[in-house]
Design brief:
By secondary structure, the chain is an alpha/beta fold. The protein has helices at about 1-25, 55-60, 90-100, 110-115, 120-145, 155-170, 190-195, 240-255, 270, 310-315, 340-355, 370-395, 410-420, 490-505, 520-525; strands at about 35-40, 70-75, 105-110, 150-155, 175-180, 205-210, 220-225, 290-295, 325-330, 355-360, 405-410, 430, 455-460, 470-475, 515, 530-535, 545-550. The chain is built from 15 helices and 17 strands. The strands form 2 sheets. It has a 10-stranded mixed β-sheet with strand order 8-10-9-11-12-13-14-17-15-16, with helices on both faces. It has a 7-stranded mixed β-sheet with strand order 1-3-2-4-5-6-7, sandwiched between helices.
């Protein structure tokens, strides 16, 4: 059904494009007058230079163009004003000419790209690229423009435009840089005609920053922070902020000479499973804002910050590599030293009955009132904590087969990312009603999932992520509004997961849960003969698999 719908939408878009082309070509023709060229050098960087015909040697001779210098062409994206300070090519021009003595040729096709006829761009780009190709070939003939010393760059739809231009000139550009190419209406089987591809130049580099076009398009494709929603972009519903971040990154590498080392990887999962990682250097997380505290049965009430990379400091804190180790991350916006803090409560319960190392991870200094901003940070946060844990393995002999990690709400999603980043090495991972905000079922790289550990148990009690996420998912009292919680107080039900888990530790209360497809079947008694399991506990039931339902009121 879904595939059929997608196919219908695809052919509808095709017919719309063809039909609009027949009608609109006469109303809005693509011709030379709609495309302008501006030549900039270090001697003339003002935005308001006059347009010139680059195929006319007399006009080019009136500029500071020098064919012996590197030449950079740039094409704008849609809905950009050519001389606005936010125009992608104007920003790139300022960065390049600040750092390099080069020719910069701005290809302004805004009279075409800004017509509010997005669906008609496929044909427009192909026609415009053919016109631009002829201009560039003329320039090669009379000015000795060296294509071996030339490159072309563009962002979004501009990235698709430069791809079409590069293909039109026979792939002769030495370098083509595409910044987060737009995906709408740019289909893979058309990429040799009107979009970016390996045929666009001798070396085509593509930087992905927003999931607009997820698939590799060039000779080298770089996925910035996973190529998804970028940190510090706030409530970026259409990912426009993330989309533009590729431009900021590119400019940063030009102006500051920064080189961000990237690891070759088949997937984001494989990338996170290695120790070496690449983070967005524009917005790094300060390691000193993540604090680690180690507690044991002898130091339950001490609050001793530990340098987990230093084995001697670990020993002073009472850490023993021979004991079981439990890591904990508290929920969003919790105060670390409050008695009510999730991890403080779990610490008291666990250390009362178990002689272990308890590692309290305090990330409160990174917490903000902007939850959506926090969501963009947690992938980087997870990798930062992963690095420290791997250092603990190397320095203090931490045994991941004798190790678990637990988190509640947003903390549950973070422990999932940490687990994934460590290659799923944790013996067990427990998620207490993981938050649901902007965590999608079809994408499991920034949330808790089966890949987070050897065995992942998730307890659902309220407005958290309702779909199954782990090896075993337990739905308490239907996994929705909990008894004794007001119907308007979702947070009450949300945090019942913590109360229930504590009861399984303190009172050894582990109710029977029945494997079941859904709550309706469970409550109607259709699952009473199904396999059973026991949720919660210090060591979870690793024989469980699938969805389980149970009723419990003893945590009150």
């Amino acid at each position: 059904m879904i595939a059929g719908t997608k196919l219908l939408l695809f052919w509808t878009s095709c017919l719309t494009t063809v039909y609009s082309g027949i009608i609109l070509d006469n109303i809005f023709p693509v011709n030379e007058s709609k495309i302008k060229f501006y030549v900039y050098t270090r001697n003339d960087t003002a935005n308001s230079v006059d347009p010139i015909d680059i195929s006319n040697p007399d006009e080019v001779s009136q500029t500071y163009f020098n064919s012996t210098k590197p030449t950079v062409f740039c094409a704008n994206s849609v809905f950009e004003k050519p001389f606005d300070v936010t125009n992608s090519c104007q920003r790139i021009k300022n960065a390049i000419l600040k750092a390099h003595d080069a020719n910069f040729i701005f290809i302004d096709w805004s009279s075409i790209s800004n017509r509010n006829l997005y669906f008609h761009l496929l044909g427009d780009i192909e026609k415009a690229a053919d016109i631009i190709k002829n201009k560039i070939l003329d320039m090669i003939d009379y000015s000795e423009l060296d294509m071996e010393n030339s490159q072309i760059v563009g962002a979004s739809v501009g990235a698709q435009m430069i791809g079409a231009i590069g293909t039109a000139v026979g792939g002769n550009f030495q370098q083509v840089v595409a910044l987060d190419p737009a995906s709408i209406y740019f289909y893979s089987f058309w990429k040799n005609i009107n979009s970016i591809s390996t045929k666009s130049g001798k070396h085509v580099q593509v930087i992905h920053s927003s999931a607009y076009h997820r698939y590799p398009l060039g000779h080298a494709d770089y996925y910035m922070n996973g190529g998804l929603a970028q940190p510090y972009c706030g409530m970026d519903l259409f990912r426009l902020c993330s989309h533009a971040r590729s431009i900021s990154l590119y400019m940063h590498t030009i102006v500051n000479g920064a080189r961000i080392e990237a690891s070759k990887c088949d997937s984001l999962e494989d990338f996170y499973a290695t120790k070496y990682t690449v983070l967005d250097v524009l917005f790094p997380i300060d390691d000193t804002k993540i604090k680690y505290y180690i507690y044991t049965q002898n130091t339950t009430d001490d609050h001793y910050e530990v340098n987990v990379v230093d084995p001697k400091d670990m020993l002073r804190a009472g850490f023993s590599k021979d004991k079981h180790t439990m890591f904990c991350l508290f929920a969003y916006n919790e105060l670390p030293l409050e008695m009510s803090n999730t991890c403080q409560r779990i610490k008291r319960a666990v250390l009362k009955s178990h002689d272990i190392n308890y590692v309290f991870i305090d990330w409160s200094l990174l917490s903000t009132d902007d939850l959506f901003q926090m969501l963009r940070l947690i992938e980087i946060l997870g990798v930062k904590i992963r690095d420290k844990i791997l250092d603990m393995i190397d320095g203090s002999g931490l045994d991941m087969n004798n190790c678990q990690i637990i988190g509640a709400s947003l903390g549950a999603q973070v422990v999932g990312i940490i687990g994934l980043a460590t290659g799923g090495l944790f013996r067990q991972v427990i998620g207490l009603d993981p938050t649901a905000y902007i965590f999608f079922p079809f994408y499991d790289k920034n949330r808790i999932s089966k890949k987070s550990g050897q065995f992942v148990q998730v307890i659902h009690t309220g407005p958290g992520y309702f779909l199954p996420m782990g090896h075993a998912d337990y739905y308490m009292n239907g996994g929705e509004l909990q008894p004794h919680c007001p119907t308007t107080d979702w947070y009450c039900s949300h945090m019942v997961a913590v109360l229930f888990y504590l009861s399984t530790i303190i009172n050894d209360n582990k109710p029977v849960a029945y494997k079941c497809e859904n709550a309706d079947r469970f409550y109607s008694g259709q699952c009473k003969n199904n396999p059973t399991s026991y949720p919660g506990g210090f060591l979870v039931d690793r024989n469980a698999s699938g969805k389980y339902y149970f009723t419990d009121y003893t945590y009150y």
